[in-house]
Amino acid sequence: MPEPTVSDRTAPTPPGSGPVTPSPRTVPLCSRGDIAPGEARRFDVQGLRVALVRIDDEFFAVGDRCSHEDFSLADGEVWAAECEIECAKHGSTFDLRTGEPCSLPATRAVPVYHLVVEGDDVSVVLP
To answer: Which one-letter DSSP state was computed for residue 8?
Structure first.
């Protein structure tokens, strides 16, 4: 009997199918009242470090590692008027809406995560 070929061993791929991309996951972080306006807090969520920041009644979530050096952004100062957070290590600031650096020495953006705020609960949507 002849040796099977690769095409004999694999099933045909149905049209429209391809690599499966994981669906986003919503993970609860805290209650609204757990973070005061102008405060940032670090959460370790499923292998990711997330800095949750509150400015007035709005919440923002960015990756908690400064892109210049591995330092927690949640330890830095929140600049409410600019909607930025400052890295306490070297002073880089990051826009909380885009993750883009606003000052040196950082030159790369940090990830930005979508949040779901329902009632009193604040949850992050992970990729």
So the answer is: H
Residue 34 CA to residue 39 CA, distance in Å, equals: 10
Q: What is the mean pLDDT of the chain?
A: 87
Q: In whole angstroms, give the CA distance from residue 126 to residue 90.
A: 28
pLDDT in tens, 83-103: 999 999 999 999 999 999 999
**12-29 tens-digit pLDDT:** 444 444 454 456 899 999
Token pair for 12: 């045909």
Residues 6+ apart with CB under 8 A from 62: 50, 51, 53, 73, 85, 94, 96, 99, 110, 111, 112, 113
Q: Please tell me the CATH code under which domain 34-126 is placed.
A: 2.102.10.10
How many CB atoms lie under 10 A from the CB of residue 99? 18
Residue 64: what are its φ and ψ, rounded to 5°? Answer: -90, 10
